Amino acid sequence: MNMSDSLTKQSVISQYLPETVTPLGDTIEAVFAPSNIALCKYWGKRNSELNLPINSSLSISLAHLGTQTRLSVSNEDQVWLNGQRVAVEDSFARKVIAFIDLFRGAQGLPVRVDTDNNIPTAAGLASSASGFAALMLAIDRFYGLKLEPSQLSAFARMGSGSASRSLYHGFVEWQMGVRDDGMDSIALPLVTRWNDLRVGLLKVSSDAKAVDSRSGMNRTVATAHLYQSWPLQAAADLARLHQAIAENNFTQLGETAEQNALSMHATMIASWPPLLYWQPDSVAAMHNIWQARAEGIEVYLTMDAGPNIKLLFMADAEAAIQQRFPDMDVIAPFA
Ligand code: 2P0
Question: Is 124 a residue whose pLDDT tops 80?
Answer without folding.
Answer: no
